[in-house]
Amino acid sequence: MHYALNLRTFFYSHYFYLGLRFAAGLVGVTLITLQFADMAVAMTVCIGALCTALMDMPSPLRHKFNEMSASVLLCSAVTLLISLCAPYHWLLMTMLVLVSFAACMMVVYGRKSMPLQLATLFIMTMSMEHDMTVRESFIHTGLFTLGAVAYLAYAMGISWILRHRIKQQVLAEALFELAAYIDIKADFYDARHNLTEQFNKLIRHQSLLADRQQASRDLILRAHNNARDAIVVQVHVCMLDLYELILSTHTDYALLRTHLADSPVMQTLHDLAYKAARDIESVAYDVTRKKSSYPEISYDPEMAAIEAELAAIQQRIDQGKPQHEALAVLRAQRNKIRAIIKMIGELHQASQKAYDTTPFWVDADMGPFLSQQKYEFRMILSHLRLDSPIFRFSLRVAMAISVGLAVAAILPYAAHSYWIVLTIVIILKPSFSMTKQRRSDRIIGTIIGCVITALIIKFLNYPALILCILVLATVATPTFIYLRYRYAAIAVSIMILLQMHLIAPGNQDLITERLIDTFIGAAVATAFSFVLANWEYQSLPRLVREVLDVNLRYMQASFDLLQGKGKDDFAYRIERKRLMDSLAALSSALVRMLDEPARKQRAVEDINLFIVQNYLLVAHVAALRAILRRHVKELPAEPVNAMLTESHDQVVEVLTRALAPGKAEIEPVMVQMAPMSQDGNAVPWSGWPLVQRRIRLLQADAVKIIVHREAILRDLA
């Protein structure tokens, strides 16, 4: 379950804060307007505020201002344009289609432009019902713009006041998702869970975790100018270091399950991971409450149990039983778990004190870690071609809206055509899977909302009570719109129907019409989801190549770090972040493809294995880094670097061949077990077996990447 759906954390989450901010702004703007004008004027001002509020998301202040200002200007222009065209039916229909197409083309600017697209299409549908003169159109647009600017000023003021609080909430969300990630890792020690299914689950969650970590970076690393900001920066950095340690815990789970199936130590390892997840959650919970966090969980019983099991395995080895591999793997896990427990302790400490300066790379350029905001018109022009998924999506929406308007015109009752159009706009998304999910949520949410509204009107029809329910629905709509859209659909149905009931209480068919129009809009959107569709398998070659390209750069940065060639790990962190982002993009495409018709699915198993193998390379590098850190005092630097150089060359060669077109023949070669000194003797060091084992795994998994890449291309051909 999502952390924000738990009552314990819900009221501290930024989702709930967004709902409160949204409702307070809309209600406040409306009530103030009512002091000076009638209800019609107040509703126009309120709609202006609502369109701007759709862009009110956690963002850096400069980005938020740019995004909300764009919404004000664009939505005001659309309001004026549609209002001027409304008296001429043919011109209105033409303009609705053109505006729909143009709004959908804005998707080229990325996911953060989706609310702007929705706001544009929303005000387009709300303006199409008004038949005004030119003078009335300008007055209407002025009132709309007044509401939009008022909410912009309000939202920027609140965001500036709460700028540190929002950072804490977004950071806490990333910590909660990291804890959920560890919960998945814990089940690897439970033989009741299939290892392949667990890997699939882990990779899917990796995509969500990467998204939350990026949101945290964007807010925290852009501006950190005071002691309070330094705390969240320190916690953020500790979280990323902890994440790398967790990656390094990947081991041979099948071997552990084979050799230790009857041992209670497997349950002990599971319990340790579960405790670590709860410990991280406690930090996240304290961060949301603006409190310092202190350790409350003891790992001593489990660590003692592991030590006892290690002693027992050693005793069995002394008796001649072949359990050397199990001993090595369990001992390595013990060491990694110790490092994780220590880092969680540092995570607690990071929240406890203020820092004079931000403990991040001083004077470093944070740009590579942050999402970039670029709105260039040439990006839209570059997608004006039939093979562009965004161009096809825009055509699809424009055609669907045309059909929706035509259907509304021939219905036997006075349909609210904007309800049909709005349903199409909300349901029809760039990908088939998103459309499918949104359609289900929209229909179920609307049905539940209509039933609840009917019960309220029948049994609780008191103006004061209805106003209270309206306020709650207004809070719930933005709270759940990015959390659980189905709940948001319920809330928005209740809100709209109760508002219309208060304005025109005599309409007995209001709820029925709402249901019919929703079903019509959903049917049209579903039909057009197959028109000019862009299936996920079409994007797979590009995404696979991006993963390989970024992984090659990551390996080069990783071995530079392992050999101590850089002054810090800045370049390594950048490439690791880019690799995780590319893997998350490929994983998300795979998940979306699984929601598409079976005949449109390609190479599902090989894509999944390809993602896993690339993920394992990151885990092996993290494990190597942990080993070298642990043995830093006894490390024979020159021979270790020689081994790393040899293995680096081999892994880079493999990945380079994987990037080349055509079939790549690779013969895995192994580095020598213990490098020799100049006199020909083996260099003594206890870490050789660990390093050698991890490098062999790294090389083997790199070779498997080529195997799965070729299988994917064969299936797509």
TrEMBL record:
InterPro entries tied to this protein: Memb_transporter_dom (IPR049453), YccS_N (IPR032692)
Keywords: Membrane, Transmembrane, Transmembrane helix
Transmembrane residue ranges: 12-33, 39-56, 90-109, 138-162, 393-411, 447-473, 485-503, 515-535
Domain named Integral membrane bound transporter: residues: 406-526
Membrane topology: Multi-pass membrane protein
Chain segments annotated as coiled-coil in the UniProt record: none
Main location: membrane
Domain of life: Bacteria
Occurrences of domain Integral membrane protein YccS N-terminal (ranges): 72-339
Database matches in Pfam families: FUSC-like, FUSC_2
Subcellular location: Membrane
Name this protein carries in UniProt: FUSC family protein
One term under GO cellular component: membrane
